[in-house]
């Protein structure tokens, strides 16, 4: 069986792919199982896309694991997700080391349970020198939270005289976001058929190509990821220009 992977142009890869991993609950429901069963099975997909992205040579992969809004889910589900995170990070650190993948996190980590935060910080510390790919987990993350935090920091620096109002521009603003050392995502994937951004990387995804698939997250496999990359490569990214201008610079 030939894979779609062979049709991917490895010289035209998105530098950064961001994924909204959605549909775990619905997947579990189709099996007559509780929602948490879906989250557990979603870990397999995390492993698959991480491997697939690294195999292709993608440099940054950001996965939306828990949003600020997700705290409002039933306590049982929130607790299960937090424990699953600890377990997954602990179990996967060796694989990340073996594959030379660096772990990072964006979001308000101070609000995570101690165990979850410690496991995460430990994983980040252990893998910090790896340089094949960076895997970013968006945890207790939301764009509006992040943007407001940036505004607060900037305001403080302006009022203390450390920063001049005239020097504030989009580039400088980006440096105050949690993604300061991460390039903007060029491709954003959402699974499960939902077509919304759900407070994810609003600033950073200004020019991201959006890819929606009906596949529920626990069913998402390497081949589905390759399909999204191939689709991305068929698009013309114009950044406000007209098609003819893009031909000229090629
Ligand atoms: C995504 O799956 C995982 C998280 C948001 C943590 P969901 O749990 O949102 O699954 P659905 O969308 O209810 O099916
Ligand atoms: C977005 O999924 C958050 C994560 C994938 C972690 P949700 O399932 O929480 O989003 P909505 O509620 O459908 O917009
Ligand atoms: Mg959902």
Provide an overview of this structure:
- The protein is of the alpha/beta class.
- The protein has a single domain (14-141, 184-249), classed as Decaprenyl diphosphate synthase-like (Undecaprenyl pyrophosphate synthetase).
- 43% of the residues lie in helices and 14% in strands.
- The protein has a six-stranded parallel sheet, with helices on both faces.
- Helix 4 links the parallel strand 3 and strand 4 (133-141).
- The chain is globular, with a radius of gyration of 19 Å.
- The structure holds 3-methylbut-3-enyl trihydrogen diphosphate (IPE) (2 copies) and magnesium ion.
List keywords for this structure.
single chain, Undecaprenyl pyrophosphate synthetase, six-stranded parallel β-sheet, 8 helices, 6 strands, 43% helix, binds 3-methylbut-3-enyl trihydrogen diphosphate, binds magnesium ion
Question: How is this fold's topology laid out?
Answer:
Blueprint (H helix, E strand, L loop, with lengths): L15 E5 L3 H7 L4 H22 L3 E8 L7 H24 L2 E6 L7 H13 L6 E9 L1 H17 L10 H5 L12 E4 L18 E4 L9 H12 L9 H7 L1
Parallel strand pairs: 1-2, 1-5, 2-4, 3-4, 5-6
